[in-house]
Structure formats: C-alpha cells, structure tokens
Protein 1
Amino acid sequence: DFKTMIEDETLPVQYMRGEPLCMMQYFRALSSCRVPGQKTDSLVFHAKNSNPRHITVAQNSQFFTVEVYHSDGTPVTADQLCVQLERICNSSLETNTEHVGILTTLHRDTWYKYYNKLVQDPSNKKSVSAIERSICVLCLDKAMPRTYEKYSRFEPVQVLHGGGTQWNSANRWFDKSLQFIVGEDGTCGFTMLHAIIDGTPCMALSDYITSSMKKPQMMESPVALLPMPQKLHFNITPDIKTAIEESKQNVDKHAQDLDLRVLVFNHFGKQIPKAHQISPDAFIQMAIQLAYYRIHQQCCASYEAASMRLFRKGRLGVILSTSSASAAFVKSFDDPKKQNSEKRNLLENAIKVHMWNTNMEIRGRTTFGHFLGLKVQAIENNIPMPDIYTDTSLNKAFNFLLSTSQVRMINYFFIQYLFISWKSCKENNVVRLIQTLEDTLVDMKMLLEETKLEPGGST
C-alpha cells in the first residue's frame, strides 16, 4: 500500500547517479490541496494532522466521499471498493446538478472571490472541506469520442482537461494534488498539482500502480458493514450560478484552443544513442532544437526541466538546452559543405555541453535561478529593477520558446512525445513540428551509423 509506505517511511529511497534524493514530496502528495487566496494561494496539507481516511469520487459532475479504511484501520479491499463505486454510479444518474467543480478552473483571483462566497453556506463549507481533506479524487468519466486523425489521441486530452463541459471538465476538482481519471471505456491516467508535487515522484506512483495491476488480488469480502458513500451537497446562489456559467465558457474556449498531439516514435529507442556512447536525453534535446531550426531557420531559447531533489525540499531547476555548441550543430546539419564527420563532432560537443549544463543545474551551480530570484525579490520588495533586467540579450536568453521535460517510464517499449501549443498562436504549428522531429531523429540516427567510431576512435 503506497500510502502506508509513505506514512511508515518505508518507501524505498530513490537515487540519481548513486546519490539519494529528497523524498519529502511524497509526504505532501496525498490529502493536500491549494486554496485560493487574495494575492497568493495557500497549500494545505492534511495528512500529518488529521490523516483523512476517505477519498472523493467525482461522477456525473457530482461529488461523493468514500471511506477507504475500516474503523480498525485496515484498508477496504478492491472488491469492497468496487461495490462502493457501483453504488455511486447507480445514485448519480440525475443530470440537473450544478457543475461546482468547474469553478476550480477560474482565474485564481476570480475563484478566490467566489470561493469565499461559496463557503459562507455551512453545507457548502462542509462539502468543500471534505474534498480538500480527502486522500485524492477519483474521477469516473464518461467515454469521449475517439479520434483517428494522425497524431491525435483523445486520452491525454481527457486526462488533462476532461474534453470540455460537454464531457468531463466539470467532473474534476482541479485544486486537489492528485486526481485519478478512469473512463467508462478503460481510459485511465492522473493529473497532479504541480505546486505540490513534480513529475518524477508521480511516475514512481504510476509505476507502483502499473505493477499492482499485474497481480490483482480480487477476493470476495463482506460488504454489509460498509458505510454508504456520502453525496456532497451544494447550495448554489444566483451569483455562484453565474460564475459557473462563466467557468463553462472559459473552459470550452481553452479546450477548443488547445492543440495537443502525440507522436509514438517506434523507429528506434534509447539503445541507438547509447550504442554510440551518447546520452539519449541529450540526443533528443538536440533533435528538438534541430527540428525547430529546420522549420524557422533560427535558434530559440529552449529549456529542459531538471529535478533538484539532491537538495532537501528540492523541486525543479532549469537546464538551458540552447548553447553556442547546440547552435553550431543545428546550423551545420543540413549544410552540404560540411562533412558528416564534422557534423558528428559538433553533435558530440553539443551533447557534452548539455550534459555539463545538466550536472551544474542539478547541483545548484547555474545562474538562471539566481537571476530569477533577484528579479522576484525586487518585485516583491518594491526595489527598483536592476538595469541588467532591461537588457535585450538577457530577455531573449530567458524568453523560452521551447519548454521541455521528460520522465522515465517502465512497461513501455517505444518513445512517446507529447506536444502542446495553442491553435490561436499562428507562429506554432504542432503537427509540422512533430513531422519534422520524426524525420530529424531518423536523420540523426543515420549520421551516427554513417560515422560509426572505429576501434581507434577515428571515423
């Protein structure tokens, strides 16, 4: 039981390059949420104080609480939980309910205003508190239409935002740290609240769930003594109802504007760059930059997220992927005057620089965080902004047009790339970038094979 291992501090410590990582994020992952505030949100962690024993289940845009521990502290079985979920599905058929969960998609300042109005009612306050204190939210979704367009997948769209108010966007409470989404058609995934937890700890949880699914322990258990799931009730005033309608319009607008595409790349995997003593991550970073250059004929500021968990309470850092070395490589790749051996040397040099930048970032030895911290400090304390922050070169260097991250996954035998942009942004064409990246990866593989290092180190 993942929750028990967190509470008992028996969760195996994770390591990176032989060094232990901070595990504190796991203690904040469950029974936590963000609460809207006037200027800033508050992160609230209930696990240590009250240690809740219930989850929230969202079904048909309605919310229920389900006790997942017995009075003696033992967890309910999978069979018992299944019975509880069936009870919820059978009792949530009414369609004239107010979509309260959609309010969590509002701009934070607006949500703060209506949150305070919502919880003025004692019944509403009790319902909101039950959701906020729950271990997690389990969203039982309606099946969405399947799309068969190339690079299009409905699953990540459904998990990310629910597909709009016509489908499942109101079947969420986006302020919760963890929401597990399960569709009628078997679609499944989860969303995390990035303010509380990062991707790598979530993937450890995902790996644990995946491994547990391979060895299910379904057994008939007594259900007579199970307390019935409790529906959470909300009293909606006219102004809250207006806010709900506003939320619906905003969600549908953003859902329609979001261009999310998936490339399942099965030409080759990490074994190819590793066979040439090249970091797969750095190899892909250079491929992304080359693909961008092929489209726009110019380089851009690009960064890759890095885990800072070598430090206590470490979160995320920024690896500056674009460098003079990467620029030299991408500019040379399609130059017919350049020999393949020179292109490979430039690739290897760019990769060395990227790996050096990565090592410096995860050890807290780079400048981006320092510059950002000074800038934020000046803003918060009303200190005149130092002149360096008006320098165009600094602004260009830190105006990232490509934001990238990668997480390790087990149980997959291909590489999957997920691209997100806005359809209203005419400068970005996600489909073109995907097509170009796919071709670029194949071209870079050919370069490695054509310039294969011989025993003496020459090509």
Protein 2
Amino acid sequence: MEVEYVPFLKSKQNEIHALAELDKDILIKIAPFFDYPKKQGGDSALDIGAAIARLAKKFKKHLGGIKEFYFDIYDLDDSLEIDGRHLYGFLLEQFTGLPLVPVVSIDRSNEHQESVIQSKGLKHVSSSTVAFRVTPEDFQSFGVVSEDIKDMLRPVFSVFESVDLIFDCRICSNLDAETISKQIDDFTRNFTSSYQVRKVVIAGSSIPASAAEILSSNSEEYVDRIEIDIYGNARSLGAVDYVFGDYTTISPDYSDADIPGEQMQGRITAKFIYSFDGQHYFIRGGSLKTKGRDQYYDLAAVLCSKEFFRGPKYSPGDAYFYEKSRREGDQCWVNTVIRPAINAHITYAVKDLLTDNLL
C-alpha cells in the first residue's frame, strides 16, 4: 500500500507509543519521519550514543508494524563522533535490520553524507531509497543550489535506486502559501528531471515552540494551518502527486528543557491541541504550580463539548480526552497528554483530512 501521510515526530517515548497504539489500518498508510530531539544545553556524545542504542531497542519492540520510517539528526551537532565514527553512521548501525530511510541534505557535513554511503555498503541500511530534506532557504531557487546538490549528494544518490524529496517548510505561520507552493513546484520539476524520485513530501507546522505565542493563559484559540494551504496549492500546480506531512501537535522548534520538576511546574501551563478541518484548536489553562493538575480535567471537558470533537470511539487518543473529561483515570501531566494528542491527530489525518476537500 502506498504511503498517504508522513507525520514528523521527535524520537521520544510518547511519540513511539502514540504510533504503537494506532489502528493497523492507519499504521500501514503512514511513514513517520523522526528527528532526534534537541535538548537545551545539549548532550555529550556519550549520552547521545547511549540514548540512540536504547531508541533502537524501543523501535524494534514497539514499531514492528511500520513499513518504513525516516530518521534524521537535524537538530544535533553534525560534527559529533561516537566511538570514532560520525554520529549518523553510529545511529544507522544501531538501527540495522529496521526499515530506516536515511536522510541527507546540502546543509550537512561531508562526513554525514559519507556515513550514509558507508552504511549502505556495510548493509546497515537496507532501504533502496534515500531522503533529501530541503528547507525554505534552500528551495527558493533550484538554480542556486543545483551545483551543491550535484557535488555533495550525487555520490550518495548513486548508491540508492531512488530519492524521496522532502520539503520541510518548518513553521509556516509567516510564510505566504502561494509563493512557497510555487517554489516547491518549480524545484520539484527541476529535481525530478535530473534524479530518480520515488515520492515528494510537503510538510510544515503552524505551531510555535511556545503556546504563549498563540494565546494567553486560561483561554482558547483557533489557528489556521498554513501547511495545508501550501500543500493544496502545490498539488493544484501538478508537478507530481505530492504526499502530505506535518508535525502533528508538536512544534518543529520544540526542545527538551532541562528544568527541575518544581521549577517546571511554575513555568508550564496545562494545554491541549486538537486538529480539525483546516485548523488547530488550542485550549490553555494556568500554571501547574498554582492551579494544579486537576485543571486538565476541566480543559478536557471543554474540548469534548465542542462540535468538532470526534468522540471516544474515533481513536485511542480521543478516548483519552473523553476519559479525562469525565475526571476518570490517572491525573494528566505535561508529558502524558502528548501521546494521545499525537495519536488522535494522526488518526484524523489519515481517516478524514486526506479524504476531504481541504487536501
């Protein structure tokens, strides 16, 4: 079955479990794109190496039903080495035996690109496809970057049968959908005329790193999803049959904060993000320190009272929100609401968003 949707996710426990809990008929239609999560203050190479080894075990245990997935280190220092090897080469070795599609780009080091070539030769990578990830600053003009692509990436492309072209628009809120979609379509036409392309993905997000940029505490807000407009416009231009992707309910600019629990309660507010039609619905409470965790029950009750709420039988994520609206089960926390939100979002994207007139 052809991939219909590419959710971009951080490679963290909640995201992994959100996928593992998807219905099988949803799971077979997606190809997740994982980024290793950025941590404020950074991590040592040793810590990252140990975390990658643990991640590989979790993928093998929980994500056996996924046909393939992408994995990138976009947010990490590209000069890091582990056991004398480039970080990405180490990662690819740890994930040997899994259906991982490696990712390259023109903003990566020669060592990154070479590690992909070596990993393919050593059979650490079994995929016959490599992904080329390109961001807005690089896809404005194919002519400007065409020589860089040829010089830096042609050697990598040559050891694979095909390329997946990934347009990562990152945060789209301030982008002009018509302009960006034309740039994407022009870049696609030029790239596909020179390289063997399997699929072209367009992804982005309208969620900033901080919810405070969208709404104040104790309020609700609706945000138009510009990434949908970009995809729809590009699709109408018709260079190829584009595949839709997004960052679910997590911002591309999210990073793990290394903050003690008590301080975190004072800084963070309770919130839910729920997607419907061409919008994200945000509902935000107050400080967890002053208003406590019970406020999640109240927020869930408001969410589940909305006409656009799809009901507890729609997905495990929706069932979670409904349970909390009835003040049932364990109390919520910042991390525990990520899993159901992502699960509900992916289910909706495949079941309805991809089949309605928005796309």
Protein 3
Amino acid sequence: MFRGKEISFLLFSLLLFISSIIISHGIKNIGTKNGNYITVKGLSEREILSTSSSWELRYRLTGDTINDINKENNLSLSKIKSFFLKHGFSEDHIKMGFMEFHEENYKESLYKYRAHISLTVNTKNIEKMEAAEKNIAELYNQGILISNSGGPRYYFDNINDIKPEMLADSIKNAKLAALEFTKHSSSKLGKIKNANQGYFEFLPIDRSLGDQERYPKKILRIVTTVSYYLD
C-alpha cells in the first residue's frame, strides 16, 4: 500500500501535470487571438455650408457727460440697425450686449467719458451675413467706430444628420486599407478586434486660412481607427 507521503506526492504531481496542460493551452489561445492583428485608419470628409451665423460688433463712443454718451449711442445704434435692415435682417436678429463706461483721468483727453458697447447679430441666412460683412465699410463711413470685430462666425448645426453616414464611410475606408494590407502580407482579414471613431473636426476649405469659424464653407472630417484580426 502507498504511504501517506507517497500519495501526497502522486496527487501533487498529477495536479502539476494537469495545470501545465491548462496553462499551455491558454497561452496558445492567447497568442492566436491577440498576437496577430492589424490597426488601420479610415478617413471621411465632407464639404459643407454653414447653417447659421453670429456677428458680435463692438463700437466706441466718447463724450463729456453720460447723457452725451447715451445720445451718441442712440444715434449709432439707429445707424447700425438701419444698415442691417437694409441687408434683409429684422430687428429680432439684433441683440444688445454690454455697455462699459470709463472716466478719462488724463489732462490730454479730449472727452471726460469713453464707452464701449457691444451687440450681436444672428441669422440662419448665410448669404445675408456675407453681404453685410462685405459692405461693413458703410458703417465706418457714417462715423461708427467699430473695434475688436473679427467678422461673423459661421456654424454648422446639422452635424447629427450626417454623422452616421460619415462614420460608416470612415469604417468602410478603414476596411479597404486593411484589405490592401492583406494583399501584400499573405494573410486573411478576420473580425474587428476593436474600433475608435475619434472625433468630428471642422476645418477650413484651405487649410492655410486658420480659424474655420470665419468661413461659411468648411470641411467636416472624421478619422476612425479600427483593429482587425488576421487569420
């Protein structure tokens, strides 16, 4: 009969043998599943036209009294509204912003008070906004001292309408890139391991132009990263 120590040794050896088989099988599966895949990127771009626009205008006034400033502001505001009404806007499109007063403390100052006023013009009619921007010199010629105006900002509000189509297109292009790789690597494309859709980005038509919000036409871009198993 086997002694207790011998039985324990045999059981331990058997368990060790079984464990080695399980571990070996697991390592083999892990190597097949995770060790042989390719990561590719798929690009999708669309040229789009903005659907809304906003223009913040700031102008400067001077006067010896606050009452003088208010009178000048009423006159300036009337001229600005007339300008935009002439270009097809309504008064509902024009919203007053802030008014800041500053008292001049320098002897060389011609006026005691200086004020900065802002207003915002909003519209979904891009052509009207472009026409107004083109003719903004009319306000300068009327004595409106516009400052700190970078021009209108243009936005695209319908991104959710084209997101699914562009995302599908970027995934399709990623798969085409992966298939092209398999042609030259003697491998077969398998299932998707994982995917990252990235983020949607607006760009100017001409990449050298800078801030895309300054232009009605722009590029909407998405890059999707996909990993495929290789069989």
